[in-house]
Amino acid sequence: MFGSIRNIQGELLEYDFLPGEEGRKDLVIIGHGVTANKDREWAVMLSAALAKAGFASLRFSFSGNGGSEGRFEDSCPNKEADDLRCVLQAVSDWQVTYVGHSMGAAVGVLVAAAETCILRLVSLGGMVDTADFAQRKFGDLQPGNAFMWEKPECPLTQSFMDDMRTIDSVEPLAKSIALPWLLVHGSADTVVPIEESERLYQQDAPHRTFISMPDADHVFSGPHAAIMAEQVVDWLQANLAS
Questions:
Q1: Per-domain residue ranges of the chain
Q2: Is it the case that residue 131 has pLDDT exceeding 80?
Q3: Which residues of 58-97 are buried (b: 16+ CB within 10 A; e: fewer)?
Q4: Contacts of 132 by beta carbon, 8 Å cutoff, 6+ apart
Q5: Exposed, middle or buried, 241 (CB in 10 Å: 0-12/13-18/19+)?
Q6: Could you name the CATH architecture of 15-241?
Q7: How many Å apart are CA 101 and CA 82, to the nearest integer?
Q8: Residue 212 gets which letter from DSSP?
Q9: 15-18 and 56-60 strand pairing
Q10: pLDDT tens track for 14-49
């Protein structure tokens, strides 16, 4: 549909496009979290639910993840933000909603705060405090000699830790975002505390909706993925109708 999409380093980004209603120019771009890829169960189910409702979607893997080119060792929020910008350029004639999960949600804030091509924003289990996350999850590990969550394909690097600490938190950037914004977070999320989404919702900004999903974990396991997808579709339909 969009041909080859490459980032600014020239690395090919894999993606799956699922069409929606013919003639409709609304497109939902879906970005995953750290150590993940475009084919996580929640993302596939969300794409299917969107297609059923008439929305086109594009799920992609950030560089160094999944089948995208690049080294995982180079993955960090700011590089992924540049990846997202390249995807946005490739779909510039569409009206874009960006859905980001976990660190992918933080990437969405980085881009939406600086660009005008994202019209609506959705954060799923969205990471806000990047430095705190890096310290909580990987602070006891030695970069260059350890793996994220013991995944050999996901080595922990100093550049990742440095980028997470430099960003520190996307909360200050979020204050400048006036887009319609849906924040969905599971109450049983042990990876990113639900309080981080609550703080963004409580900022003095219009057009934000917060949904707490009882008993849902960070990746919306089991029946929670379908419920989450339904919430996103309902919000999009209501938002576009208004």
A1: 15-241
A2: yes
A3: bbbbbbbbbebebebbebbbebbbbbbbbbbebbeebebb
A4: 169
A5: exposed
A6: 3-Layer(aba) Sandwich (3.40)
A7: 17
A8: E
A9: antiparallel
A10: 999 999 999 999 999 999 999 999 999 999 999 999
